[in-house]
Amino acid sequence: MPLTSQIISREFPDLDKVEKLNCEAFPPEERVAISEFLRYTNDEQSHFFAFYNEEEFVGFAFAIYNEKCFYISFFAVMPHLRSHGYGGEIIHKLTDFYQKTMVLEVERLDEECDNLEQRQARMDFYKRNGFKTSNAFLEYDGLSFEILYLGDHFDEEAYRDIFHMLQEKNFFEFEIKYRRFSDA
Question: What is the pTM of this model?
Answer without folding.
Answer: 0.87
